[in-house]
Automatic annotation (TrEMBL):
GO biological process, one term: carbohydrate metabolic process
Entry-linked InterPro entries: 6-hairpin_glycosidase_sf (IPR008928)
UniProt-recorded name of the protein: Uncharacterized protein
Amino acid sequence: MQKRLIPDTLTLEERAGHAMNAIVGMADRDYGDIPFFAANLMNDPANLTHGDWDYGSSHGRMVDAMILARHMSGETFGTDIEEKYRSNLLSFFKEDGLSYRQTNPHHNWEPNANFIDQRAVILSLTTWFMATGDPKAKEAADKHVAALKRVAVKEKDVWYYPASEYKEGGWPSSNAILLRLAPDPAAFCGRLVMPLLKYHQLTGNEDALELCEFFSALIVQRSGVFNADGSFNDALAYRSGHFHTRLGTLDALARFGAFKGDAALIAFVEKSYAWAITQCTTFGWTPGDMKEQAYEHETCSLVDLIATGITLAQSGYTKYWSVVEKYIRNHLAESQLLEMDWVKETSDRSKDVPGLITYHNIGQRTRGAFAGYSAPNDFCCNVNHGRGHTNDLQICCLGSGTRGLYMGWSNTVTEKKGTVSVNFLLNRGSAWLDVESCLPHEGKIVLRIHKDIHRLQVRIPEWAGYAKVKFARELNGETTNGKGSDPSTWVGEHFLLLGGAKAGEVITIEFPLSLRKTIETAVGQTFETEWRGDDVVGISPAGTEHPFYSGRKVYDKAPMREGELRKVENEFVW
């Protein structure tokens, strides 16, 4: 394909290629390619360590992320590691259909089927089957879903799991079942709805749909996870309002509400989501929870925030397209580790312990990973509050961050009933059109139409207004001009309606940029942020370990580079 000049601005498919480097690099080649879980980048030298999440959780997330990253980027390296991740994942299943954690010679954790792990397991099997149709993946997934149903405690209107760990032969405590001591329903039941629903949509599996029905009823009707005003229950029994599991549950409920056409369920989600974003910064930093981990943002939580916002936007709450684009452009993009000069690494392997720790080439191996716990202004969270300095990288955040890239990429251009919608103003190639974005340098996007479109609409940022929006349409050497001041050209609050478009047409849309400053609060900490359009280009106070928003350069004209925007045949939608 002939390359041309395109804007040198955020391109999510390229970020997915960088993520592939870290997904491959996390494998412990001296320990059966079991991936490391965490990294401490502030150590000299930096290191990677194993943990009890290494099995169903880590493998599930890596299998899912690798498939999504390959689909986006077209990268082909690391197929040997991908095959090991898949074979390892299948080896963790026992005859009962559940995925079990394994023993480790350096730790004394015991094998069990942890129910946080099970969500990552069915997620990966679903993506695996979606992408390949591999009967091994479907066989494992069918058996897994049947097991999830079999071991659930079943009440008249809700189902639940009475403990976080299941052991061969049954739940650890029959008394927990008698007393209905369901642990954190969001963490162990609510988040499962998302992959179970997708698996049902792909295969028609009725057990998966039934689990979705009863788990959703548990969360909404009986659990108490969400307070009446939509806020998160911060009681200790509810993991102090843990944001990742709450937002992941909202993502699941929103998808299920959209699937069922259940307006009440969508409204339930929107009420909590609207509260949740008031606890976050406008650029996407989220608290870890509402107590001890409040200062520790997980990339996982941000991606749940992105996914939920997208489903709500698709369901009619169109204002969330703008909210989500700010999250993608800012904290998701900043949380990906691309510059490695600050990481102190060594090629010496003498202190490595297979299955425990490695110090070998950590910077090279982790380039492309996402922050485990970050501060609003810094990759490394090293505050005086909460638990202080914790993991700088976590493999769950690498998996989630990659999925976040995919959610942004796959929803930038969408089609429904003949209407093609440009929802995010990001570089993106598609079968219908290419989007070339000059943001944040210029308020300008260029659309190159590949085939006739019945109805085309483009979201314009709310800060651009409408009176000064203008567009030029070029086709066969002729140019026609239009203005946003015509009120009949607007639909869905902020979408510019362009009507039909013809193959070969080039449409240039221009609007004024917003240059502004905002005061952002993150659990009592205050930051002044400088914005250029939807991008944060400066933050004060500055970070100290690997500062965020300190190296973003902006120009009067968008820099250009030679390249092409990837077009993927048979895109699959998550």
